[in-house]
Amino acid sequence: MEKNHCKIHLQSRQKMGADDETTNQEYIGEIAERNDRRYLSYQRCSEDGDISCLISFDRRSLSMTQKGALNSKLELFPGKKTENIYSTPMGDLNLPIFTRNYQMMEMGNKIKLVLDYDIITGGDPIKTSMEIEIEF
Description:
By secondary structure, the chain is mostly beta strands. It has no helices and ten strands. Strand 7 and strand 8 (about 90-105) form a beta hairpin.
């Protein structure tokens, strides 16, 4: 599996009630392809330490795994509800996620992933939108 270096721009927006937060981050990572599925890996730093991130995706679905200072696994399938695990210092937290939309677009030397999903917390869901642009 050949790996190529890439630049990753990630924009995330979370909205819950009146609260609305947008973040923009850039990373340098690697992308590889195997059996029509792509694997994007990168490191991100947090207040608690480094986190290794792996995003596995194709045209139908996306999976994001984080290991290190934060451990989580997120699986997105358009129109479906999935159970996702976040490991915290106080124990594992299982959160249902409903994927409203997922798109993968290829444009020359770029791939753009568009995600819209709800994190179901019991009250109002946390509406989350992400755009991940990968340039290689």
